[in-house]
Design brief:
mainly beta; 138 residues; disordered C terminus; seven-stranded antiparallel β-sheet
Length: 138
């Protein structure tokens, strides 16, 4: 399966890259940064159990495929939504969001869309207590 061999790509995974604000441990592996055909960089992101991103905004949007495990997606002014392996998440341009992994962690593929006009920015830490549903989705 793809997620079992993802680390075989030539790009090593980076733990908590400086450009990404997270709580817990998150590993990011760039699969095709300089794609001049589709203009859609592809990243494999592995979240350790219960790790999560800070509030994030992708100016051009992002498509996320959950490969392994479970996660929850938080959007501003909306309840958390559960996602499981095989689910596709489409986040509109400028939609502020965060992802929190379940008790077993999760692995996702993230495709940045609408390049070159897509800038990813991270904001403040998420207050998980302000959401009615806890992050244990397993």
């Amino acid at each position: 399966m793809l997620w079992d061999s993802i680390s075989d790509f030539n790009c090593p995974a980076t733990k908590n890259p400086p450009s990404m604000r997270v709580q817990g441990e998150v590993y990011v592996q760039t699969l095709n940064r300089d794609d001049c055909v589709f203009n859609a960089p592809l990243f494999c992101i592995r979240f350790t159990p219960k790790s999560y991103t800070h509030w994030c905004r992708c100016s051009g949007g992002v498509i996320i495929l959950v490969l392994k495990g479970n996660a929850r997606l938080g959007l501003r002014q909306a309840p958390l939504k559960d996602f499981h392996a095989g689910d596709l998440i489409r986040i509109s341009p400028q939609q502020e969001h965060f992802i929190v992994a379940g008790q077993a962690g999760c692995t996702v593929l993230a495709i940045l869309t609408n390049l070159p006009n897509n800038c990813v920015s991270f904001g403040q830490e998420v207050d998980l207590q302000s959401f009615t549903s806890p992050p244990d989705v397993d």
